[in-house]
User: Fold these one by one.
Assistant:
Number 1:
Amino acid sequence: MNENEEMMFDKNDDYFNDDFLDNQSFFLKGIDNMGWGIKNRLSRIFNPKTGRTVMLAFDHGSILESTTGMDRLETAVLPLIHYADSLMCTRGVVRTIIPPTTRKPVCLRFSAGSTELSELNNDCIINIEDALRLNASALGVTIALGDKHEAKMIENLAVAVDNGYKYSIPVMAVTSVSKQDRDASYYAMVARVSAENGANIVKTYYTEKKFSEIVNKCPVPVIVAGGKKMPEQKSLEFCRRAINDGAAGIDVGRNVFQSSSPLAMIKAISAIVHDNLETDDAYQLFRELSNSIDN
Ligand code: 5RP
């Protein structure tokens, strides 16, 4: 690459630059040409005022049995749902734990399969009629590129997207939990492949380096999983950086449920996502809230 070509590459690096977004009428990128139903459901998951979401995730039990902090789902989840914008869970948990009076949109885990006791990702998808019965606002389908079940997962995504268009339910590609350390170029590929196959939202992991490339190369909104438990301040810093780098929200489970104060933590994350608090202010808020909640 000569110097001129390099400069051109740099200039065009921000694929979804302000000009492009200014010409979109819907508040989420890549959704302009979708139908009313998909836009309405996405407007329930993402706050149209900020274009972002705090998705409370408690679908871990479908592959990991019970996870610390989520052993008793009803006591862990119910006090928090008011402070989340959307809920990510399985159909079993929707029917057994979530009150049908809730107004929170559900991103339903739509793929199901093997657990960590054998091999992960040998998945099928559930019946679209059940997603309709549960009034799902989105369908979450696992994607793990490079896995031996890759083709099956892409097929599952394609079937979910076909059903999603048929019934106007957006599809979220859920980048699989991986035991391997993956870098931004891997997650950028998962995000791009998922969007090219029709996903309307991509959930991925935050990478210390080049996270904005994942966002910029993906034509639909990218949200970030909370990941393994970290100290609260670090987790808040990580959320702040993800939002600064263009994430459209946080899909968080363990860093809330395993916090010393889950309620304070979800409120502090929400303050970063929707009120643009800096990390130090959000951590201060976490400390104040956890003291007042605990006392
Ligand atoms: C598990 C998932 C989770 O929903 C997602 O990873 C968010 O949870 P956590 O913040 O604990 O990583 O996809 O399969």
Note: The longest strand covers residues 138-143.
Number 2:
Amino acid sequence: MSKTIIISNRLPVKITQQNNEYELQVSEGGLATGLGSIYKEGDNIWIGWCGLDVPKEDESRIINELEKENLAPVFLTEDEIKLYYEGFSNETLWPVFHYMSTYAQYDESYWESYKQVNEKFRDAVIALAQPGDIIWIHDYQLLLLPQLIREKLPDTTIGFFQHIPFPSFELFRLIPWRAELLNGMLGADLIGFHTYDDVRHFTSSATRVLPVQTNANTIHQDDRNITIDAFPMGIDAKKFDALSKTEEVRLINDNYNEILGDTKIILSIDRLDYSKGIVQRLLAFEKVLIEHPEYIGKISLHMIVVPSRDTIPQYRDLRDDIDKLVGNINSRFRTSAWHPIHYFYRSFPITELSALYNRANICLVTPMRDGMNLVSKEYVASKTNEPGVLILSEMAGASKELIEAIIINPNNLAEMSNAIVQALEMGKEEQQTRMLSLRQTVLKFDINHWVKIFMDQLKEVKELEKSRYAR
Ligand code: GDG
């Protein structure tokens, strides 16, 4: 019997250590939920780093604990985390793939570690995989893995999905190891991205860097066909819809209403990241207060920034910039009874997020670049009673689907601040019409739909490839 193996840099689990005991908490994130329908079944398994530096003598305990959940760990050393993860993944690939190439480091030691860790993942897969298995690899930390597995198990079915953008060739070509990265990805049978633009950029890079032929969305290399396609990822929309109607969320919102009264809430939620356009968003909000003093005391920006990658200098600098800007705006405009910005640098329980999504009059999602952006979809799914307005950057993959949002260019501060004013003044009826269409999209094309269409196409392209050989 063949099985399915999911592989990602991180396992969908949080492990904490208390009094020499390890505790597992399986993630409730969208990807974990969607892939839950796969990896929790039968002999299927999810392989990834467990997120913890585990002493050698404790490894077997962790392995046993994870096995009960159909999970298998890859253990990474402190050096590997520094060079492969923080280094090559987040200081080389992340900035280039998000069009911030001036932030990129091209460091030979990062690259060496990236290769070694991808080989480590390959060994973990090979230890568990059989030739007929289906393997689904996730994201930019593992670009070399498809080919590494293909070399050992030539007939295996391999899918690869990249969650971040694929940049245009002019950006991608900057990476010294561009050919190796493309060859690594092309070990897959099916390569998926969030949008057709990513598909186009990938195909164009492959044809310019490598001696491959393309035909529509198929790349031909070494007598193999590789299909490249767009699979816009959805969220667990039913969960967000249901959560917003629970008593717990209603009580949190009653509390907000008591504190905030009629103040209109503009919501912003991201991980700390320069790709998310947090500074530009603050400037656009400040512009509204400067140009429309009539809103002073009547609107407030609730900004949640979840700590992330703060060992990397650019992230620490970004945090300082945000702190300063929030301080300046608050001190300039606040009154004794009102704060323009409520800024939180921490993460919140999902019930708090749900209440904020449900209550917010506007959700401001303005990344400079984003593969998809799930926050925009979670806002829509949580809008179960009063409508609201989504302002969305055209640089987010989600803007290709959520076309009833107000779509803006995040580099255009005037356009962004005008969009905020347009949203504040938008009548209920228009809000309702737009939100209804947005909700239809988000509820229909959810995470389960995404998992199904990717898996179906993966099986289909493999069958086609097999029949080509049989002919
Ligand atoms: C990458 C790509 C792509 C945020 N704050 C809290 C919290 N969150 C959750 C949100 C949402 C998730 O984090 C963020 O997802 P995004 O899609 O917005 O962004 P990335 O983390 O950069 O994800 C992105 C995604 O992969 C999937 O392919 O869309 O483009 O960059 O789900 O709800 N969750 C909790 N507390 C918080 O305070 N519990």
Note: Residues 30, 163-164, 233, 269, 271, 304, 306, 347-348, 350, 353, 370-375, 378 surround GDP-alpha-D-glucose (CB under 6 Å).
